[in-house]
Amino acid sequence: MTxxxxxxxxxxxxFILFILLFVGPEKLSVSLSDILLPFxxxxxxxxxxxxxxxxxxxxxxxxxxxxLIFGRVYCSFLCPLGTLQDLLxxxxxxxxxxxxxxxxxxxxxxxxxxxxxxxVAVLIGSLSLVSLIDPYSxxxxxxxxxxxxxxxxxxxxxxMALKPFDLxxxxxxxxxxxxxxxxxxxGFFLLILYLAATRGRLYCNTVCPVGTLLGLLSRVSIxxxxxxxxxxxxxxxxxxxxxxxxxxxxxxxxxxxxxxGCFNCLDACSQAxxxxxxxxxxxxxxTWSPARRGFIIGSVAxxxxxxxxxxxxxxxxxxxxxxxxxxxVTPPGSLNTTRFIETCTACSLCVSICPxxxxxxxxxxxxxxxxxxxKMNYEKSxxxxxxxxxxxxxxxxxxxxxxxxxxxxxxIGEAELLKDICVVFVDHNNCGACGEVxxxxxxxxxxxxxxxxxxxxxxYCIGCGACQLACPTVPRSIVVHTNAVHKKAEKYPYxxxxxxxxxxxxGGQVITPEKAVEQKKPPDKDFPF
Length: 529
Description:
The protein is mainly alpha-helical. It has helices at 3-23, 26-36, 41-50, 54-70, 74-77, 80-94, 108-123, 128-133, 135-162, 179-199, 202-206, 209-218, 237-241, 264-268, 290-309, 312-318, 337-343, 349-353, 389-393, 404-408, 423-427, 433-437, 466-470, 513-516, and strands at residues 223-227, 247-248, 253-254, 274-278, 359-361, 374-376, 410-417, 443-448, 451-456, 478-488, 509-511. α7 (108-123) packs across α12 and α7 (108-123) runs parallel beside α15 (290-309).
């Protein structure tokens, strides 16, 4: 079996597994996250920095080692965005859109500048550039924002078609994706589609910071592609199949910093002019090569960006979320808002796997630094009391692993009752919707003249949003405000008599939770809807 066949089989299997990771059932996604994510460069690097784990450290070392030995094979074997581009190129060839590949000069100034700016942004705590152009995160958003809704809508149409045959299944729902976020994801997908159809792997060699960084390492890789000019017949077959545009037959050179290790050239060359072998020592080194010039330009740009970025006013602008009246609630396991913003790469894996679809990607709700990062959207859904799956799959350490028991007492926010809107206080009519769905018994009622008035005991509230979702008023009369730093809630003593609420007026009778909403036992798994 040739190297190109091995590459196609391996990259195809990994790509299918990534699709299943984002659109498959919960248990399968959790299992695949443990297998696939440690071998993605940015997740492995972020996890190693935020919460070092042996498998992610090993994955990062593995990626660096294979690059130093074999060159940028990561980009053709392991990267899902690389495989997606290969599929787009294959599709464009079938419809006659893609011309033959040809050698192109590297855009070193642009790619090294983007790499430098990305590094500087990360150092000051902003992952906005990483979120936008990291290959794993971008592929995840394409799958979560477009592929998963397409599959779910197809499924829902299928079960509707079965109803005449008395066959019934529950329809599925998708996460709520804002139009602004969809526009960003669609824009990058169209950019990749255009570049893949017309310029091959230009995105990998110009925009992608992972490709640029691994390209620097591959310059000194042990095994490299070489072109024997004496044996070359100048048929340019190798140039025509090089999707990276890095083979220059006229000068008998191959730019290893841009070569993605697809092995197409070996398969195309009939005279074995191109070989893949141990790197030969170079005797003549160009002291002012385009690559060095581009790297210097990038370094200068990074220095200028660093001076601006460390300016207090710029950093305040990047952290503009603190000025919001009601900043978003972050998922369980994020510990605090600042840490979440500095570690989440907006891959949308948690969004796609959330069983209640409460997680919603945002545009700039967290400020510029938190571009595209998810929030808890209690206007659309609630956080399942019996679920901690988002903490299990987060690849960057933005969401720390929490056991189910820990998650149940993690207070990500606090509910606030707006009595000037609440129908009970305004119209003096019974409602009780918020108390019926509260999984922690944080809401109980005070009986005043046969009207049950809700009260919130915040020591038991975990900010799950079930009460806000159930509230029938518009706008909601009970809302959850974020805890900038997550706290620990008290566990409700189910085996003891619940604490009483002192009535506001004399003669008011206290109604305990078991009398008001008949909740004495812990909620079941399907709670609250």
